[in-house]
Design brief:
Blueprint: H1 13-38, E1 50-51, E2 54-55, H2 56-81, H3 87-107, H4 114-124, H5 127-132, H6 141-168, H7 176-182, H8 185-195, H9 203-209, H10 217-226, H11 228-250, H12 252-258, H13 267-284, H14 292-318, H15 324-354, H16 360-385, H17 391-426
Antiparallel strand pairs: 1-2
Helix pairs in contact: 1-6, 1-7, 1-8, 2-4, 2-16, 3-4, 3-7, 6-7, 6-13, 6-15, 11-15, 11-16, 11-17, 13-15, 14-15, 14-17
Length: 433
């Protein structure tokens, strides 16, 4: 029986701690395993494979991201409307479909086998929102979602290490992704079962953070239009962050080679483990701030500090003041701090601060949809600007552009929401329950 159907009961501190740890383990494990079906193929180089003048890896990555992006747009409606009782079933169904799509990738000849990657991305794009639905609207939400987001930092490295190991064992590049997915099937089922046992938000959670209801099309329209300028700026910042993060993740071997660093299977795990620890601590501490307004604006400041860390990494790299490993870790930390903060605190506390009717699924998928759309555009135009051998220079140049625009955007968003909140003191917003 899914405990989300049960009536919330008062909880003790000890019970809160137990279920908090349980929820983090379940969410982390579920999304960690999902990456085993999504990312291993990116570690393959697909050397000397070109079609219509574009290298095959760019086509493969872009095709999966197109499916993933389309899934995000579909998720704006689907995830925001999903009844809690259907989340676990939907999760397992999507993962099964994703593994079947990877089998298709192995069966079909190049370049037609990228159709399997499109279907894979189409199914996996909604997994995050389904997992997020189990965690939002709680006093511990930041800590819980920080644990969830840690999974896609660590798993990005670990699953690539699995893929690289399989290639070293002689598994063919086109069959490596579906083989890697098999390693994660059973643990995924276990973690999804754990998710279904998490209790519903308590009365204290609802009082502190607001109720999170399924949304209608009118609900989504009302929420966006009420804060359209500020939300549009945040989506723009998230778009830039997503593009940078995705380039760093999907073309990690090329970046490491451009830095003159020898790539080995464990390199991705080592670098991303350090990034994950730092990002989780920084974003998880937001749970200690009880005041929703204060937490919201501090989270915007934390995003800004992340971009400043990226700028420091870029400057240090330009003057040879930092080694390749430290550079990749620092720039990864700087990118993931705002990326995770928007997932964990910015949107969560915006809903709690305004008491608007809505849920995290809608806001996160609105941002994700345009973020991944931006990455698709970059992937299809990159080959017109730079050769694959000069990928590092392209990444560094785009990073500078993103840092400058994002810092300006965060300042503008902060001023907008401060104005809205100050205005609401004189004319209180209608509370939606």
């Amino acid at each position: 029986m899914n405990s989300f159907d049960a009536t919330p009961k008062p909880s003790s501190t000890k019970s809160d701690l137990f279920w908090g740890v349980w929820a983090v383990v379940a969410a982390f494990g579920t999304y960690f395993c999902m990456y085993g079906f999504r990312k291993p193929f990116t570690v393959a180089e697909y050397a000397d494979s070109f079609f219509v003048g574009i290298d095959y890896k760019t086509i493969a990555v872009s095709t999966q991201v197109i499916g993933y992006t389309l899934s995000k747009f579909i998720g704006i409606k689907t995830i925001s409307e999903m009844p809690p009782r259907l989340r676990a079933t939907a999760l397992l169904g999507l993962i099964i479909f994703a593994e079947m799509a990877l089998a298709l990738f192995g069966l079909l000849p190049r370049p037609w086998n990228v159709a399997g990657l499109f279907l894979n991305g189409l199914s996996l794009g909604m997994v995050f929102g389904l997992v997020l639905g189990f965690l939002e609207g709680r006093r511990l939400t930041e800590a819980l979602v920080a644990g969830l987001c840690t999974s896609f930092i660590i798993s990005d490295g670990v699953t690539k290490s699995v893929g690289a190991w399989l290639l070293d064992q002689g598994v063919q590049e086109d069959w490596m992704p579906v083989t890697a997915g098999l390693f994660f099937c059973l643990p995924l089922c276990l973690f999804v079962a754990m998710l279904t046992l998490i209790p519903a938000p308590s009365e204290q959670d609802v009082s502190a953070r607001s109720a999170r209801d399924s949304m209608t099309a009118q609900d989504r329209r009302n929420l966006f239009l009420r804060y359209a300028p500020g939300l549009s700026i945040l989506v723009g910042v998230y778009l830039l962050t997503t593009v940078m993060r995705s380039i760093r993740a999907d073309f990690a071997p090329e970046l490491w080679q451009g830095l003159g660093y020898e790539v080995d299977p464990l390199l991705f795990t080592r670098s991303e483990m350090l990034v994950a620890i730092g990002v989780t601590v920084v974003n998880g501490l937001a749970v200690c701030i009880g005041d929703n307004r204060l937490a919201f604006f501090r989270s915007l400041g934390i995003c800004g500090l992340g971009f400043i860390a990226v700028a420091i990494a870029l400057i240090a790299q330009q003057f040879d003041a930092i080694g390749p490993f430290s550079f990749m870790v620092l720039i990864g930390f700087g990118l993931y701090v705002p990326y995770v903060a928007i997932h964990t605190t910015v949107f969560e506390r915006l809903l709690a601060m305004t008491r608007e009717k809505g849920n995290l699924g809608f806001l996160v998928y609105l941002a994700d949809a345009f973020g991944y759309l931006g990455f698709v555009v970059v992937m299809f135009t990159r080959h017109l600007i730079v050769e694959r051998s000069n990928f590092l220079d392209y990444f560094l140049g785009f990073s500078w552009l993103a840092v400058i625009l994002s810092l300006v955007g965060l300042l503008a968003a902060s001023r907008y929401f401060a104005y809205r909140q100050n205005a609401s003191v004189a004319v209180p917003l209608v509370e939606h329950t």
